[in-house]
Specification:
- By secondary structure, this protein is α+β, with helices and mostly antiparallel strands.
- The strands form two sheets. Strands 1, 2, 3, 4, 5, 6, 7 and 8 form an eight-stranded mixed β-sheet that branches. Strands 9-10 form a two-stranded antiparallel sheet.
- A hairpin with a 5-residue loop joins β2 and β3.
- The two termini are 19 Å apart.
- The model has no long low-confidence stretch (mean pLDDT 95).
């Protein structure tokens, strides 16, 4: 792990990174690779042979699987040793989430349990609360769940109507209300419930399953993740001890939103795990299915799909572990400074990147399973082939942990708020870009490896700064109402973050003469070629939405200038990528 100091969250947009100090998946330790293998073996032995029974929720199978995972230490991998966990670092915990993310409905139950179902207590609980619940959550003796969403409040969580009224003697809270879409609701033992104390102070309270006044709806019949228990919770004069208050009264939003930062990164990890397994499924079919007396994997149209799957997952993987290592480093720094909520503080620092990861990871998985069905042809539409399950299960990820639309809006909202608070200097570099538009372009050449790609990425950043800076100057406070503009710029930022991460990974692999250095170079260059078109398209749409006259013409010329790339044969690059995948027999990069 690098010894460098942490950088400010979101600052990748305004500063360069040293490739040799960036953590990449090739840096995993031997222990981490063994954990990946253990997770794969668990899925192959305990989950995949029983996928149909899991989907049918037969014989209480999901809690039993969680028990088995708990026996292996997989549920408490990131929990401190003093509470019965393994005390692993954040990168390792992310690896566990990714590796088990290929487990379909099991992955959802596991992630809900050891993420949003446990972390609120671990990071906001009193010492008594942590000692009571965390050791049992770490082993699976108790199962956790998170009760936030209501019929009238989803993304607008603070509009919740569930109430918690303090009793006259001050010893208990009386909870009344309803929660919906509660993952693990059918078997969880302990719930983190969000309610308004006194009718207006949004707060969190721990509620145990056997509490009188708490009842449950029937299992929801869902499009996918059918094996994941999803129920409504009903609170009718549900009395819980006042000591079950989690954190401070009126500070429930701090718990909800901070836990979501970690949840968004972990969702990307799980999506990556699912995507890698789906690539293997699609590849196996493509190499064994013959048409016109040859495997369909030999056709250019199929190779394009296989290569694009690899490109998108490789990009998501690279951005994921770059961010996870930042969070890990920041957590260690905050811990050394005596910060008790070090991981939450670290995740908040990189909340922008976590929101990006949630979007790019879920959408990469959606691409993979959609094209996986297409590669299977008519068979892909049959339940006899697991790719159909993967397709159904994938769709929820663009809704979980805040919809992708909400996350896109959050990316720019956080950037603008941090700029206003002085946490990150956006307007200064944006003004420099505006000055550069009036100058003659730099035509000098740098022949060092990947210098061309680094310059293209730097120009992508200038395109973002130009659009964001001009939009903020012209629209000011009205900008937050212009959701389309914000989402266009967010898409530019998401593509740029992935592009830079890929180039840095390729540079580091090239420096270390890694066996997959050519693959990394092909992926980075192909991604950049396509991202340039996407960024150009989004930038033009953003500019046309708020600029007029000479300003508009100047900025449109700027977009053309900042998204210009050298010609590159992406067809041949994709064929090389597809061939490497076929040689490996699965995603093994």
């Amino acid at each position: 792990m690098s010894t460098q100091k942490s950088i400010a969250g979101g600052s990748f947009l305004v500063q360069e990174s040293d490739a040799l100090n960036v953590f990449i998946p090739e840096d995993f330790s031997e222990e981490q690779r063994m954990i990946i293998q253990m997770c794969d073996e668990f899925l192959d032995k305990e989950v995949y042979p029983h996928l149909t029974d899991i989907d049918l929720q037969k014989d209480n199978i999901m809690p039993k699987l969680l028990d088995k995972a708990g026996e292996l230490g997989l549920l408490g991998a990131a929990f401190p040793e003093q509470y019965g966990g393994l005390g692993k670092d954040f990168v390792t915990a992310t690896l566990v989430n990714e590796s088990l993310g290929a487990g379909h409905s099991f992955a959802v139950a596991m992630a809900a349990h050891n993420g949003i179902g446990s972390l609120p207590i671990l990071y906001f609980g009193t010492e008594e609360q942590k000692e009571k619940y965390i050791p049992k959550l770490a082993t699976g003796e108790m199962k956790g769940a998170y009760a936030l969403t209501e019929p009238g409040s989803g993304s607008d969580a603070l509009a919740a109507k569930t109430t918690a009224t303090l009793s006259d003697d001050g010893t208990s809270y009386v909870i009344n209300g309803q929660k919906i879409w509660i993952t693990n609701g059918g078997f969880a033992d302990v719930f983190t419930v969000f309610a308004k104390v006194g009718g207006d102070k949004f707060s969190a309270i721990i509620v145990e399953r056997n509490t009188p006044g708490l009842s449950f709806g029937e299992e929801e019949h869902k499009m996918g993740i059918k094996g994941s228990s999803t129920r409504q919770l009903f609170f009718e004069d549900c009395i819980v001890p006042a000591t079950n208050l989690l954190g401070e009264i009126g500070k429930g939003h701090v718990i909800a939103f901070n836990i979501l930062n970690i949840g968004r990164l972990k969702l990307c990890a799980a999506a990556n795990g699912g995507a890698k397994r789906a690539i293997k499924t699609a590849l196996n079919y493509a190499t064994t299915r013959q048409q016109f007396n040859v495997p369909i994997s030999s056709f250019g149209a199929i190779q394009y799909k296989l290569a694009e799957m690899v490109i998108r997952v490789f990009a998501a993987d690279t951005a994921l572990y770059r961010t996870a290592s930042w969070i890990d480093l920041k957590e260690k720094e905050l811990t050394a400074d005596g910060n008790k909520g070090a991981l939450l503080g670290a995740a908040e620092e990189y909340a922008i990147e976590c929101a990006m990861l949630k979007v790019l990871g879920s959408e990469a998985l959606d691409y993979v399973v959609d094209e996986g069905v297409q590669i299977h042809g008519g068979n892909g539409y049959s339940d006899e082939y697991n790719i159909s399950r993967a397709y159904r299960d994938s769709r929820i990820n663009r809704i979980f942990e805040g919809t992708n639309e909400i996350n896109r809006l959050l990316i720019m909202d956080m950037y603008l708020k941090r700029a206003m608070k002085g946490r990150i200097n956006i307007m200064g570099p944006a003004m420099e870009v505006q000055k550069e538009l009036m100058s003659i372009p730099d035509f000098s050449e740098d022949n060092t490896p990947f210098a061309v790609e680094l310059k293209v990425v730097a120009n992508f950043k200038k395109a973002i700064l130009m659009c964001a800076g001009a939009a903020a100057q012209q629209l000011m406070m009205q900008l937050e109402q212009e959701q389309e503009i914000l989402m266009y710029i967010a898409d530019m930022a998401i593509d740029t973050f992935q592009a830079e991460s890929l180039v840095l990974r390729a540079i580091k692999m090239n420096a270390h003469e890694h066996k997959n250095q050519q693959l990394a170079a092909d992926i980075a260059r192909t991604f950049i070629a396509d991202a340039a078109d996407r960024i150009s398209h989004a930038g033009r749409n953003a500019i046309n939405a708020f600029a007029e006259g000479d300003t508009q013409r100047m900025m449109l010329l700027g977009i053309k200038r900042f998204t210009k790339t050298a010609s590159y044969n992406t067809k041949e690059a994709r064929r090389r990528i597809a061939q490497r995948l076929i040689e490996e027999g699965s995603y093994n990069f």
